[in-house]
Amino acid sequence: MEIKCEIEIECRNEEEARIIEKALRVDNERYIETSVNGRNVVAKLEEKNALSALHTINDFMACLQLSMESVRTLYPKNR
């Protein structure tokens, strides 16, 4: 069985999306492929094991939350 998942995160603007994607890329190399599409960060995952997929998604979401909080603290206004 192969599990595929795509997560799309809408950011305030393209600059914010690029900053968040760069922060996530470091931690998710080999596990999740990230890219920027306009003001969205797109994350794609392929796993053969459901528990591995769940663990990877959970880790990704935790890193995403931290990076979004950091960016919005550093750049509080919508630019």
Describe the structure.
51% of the residues lie in helices and 27% in strands. It is α+β, with helices and mostly antiparallel strands and 79 residues long. It has one domain (3-74): 2-Layer Sandwich (TATA-Binding Protein), CATH 3.30.310. It has a 3-stranded antiparallel β-sheet with strand order 1-3-2. A hairpin with a 2-residue loop joins strand 2 and strand 3. Helix 1 (14-28) packs across helix 2 (50-74).
Short summary of the structure?
The chain is an alpha+beta fold and 79 residues long. Helices cover 51% and strands 27% of the residues.
Chain-wise SSE layout:
Layout: E1 3-10, H1 14-28, E2 33-37, E3 40-47, H2 50-74
Helix pairs in contact: 1-2
SS-based class: alpha+beta
Poorly predicted regions:
none
CATH architecture: 2-Layer Sandwich
Overall geometry: elongated
Oligomer: single chain
Mean pLDDT: 91
- Proportion of helical residues: 40-55%
Characteristic terms for this protein:
three-stranded antiparallel β-sheet; TATA-Binding Protein; elongated; 79 residues; 2 helices
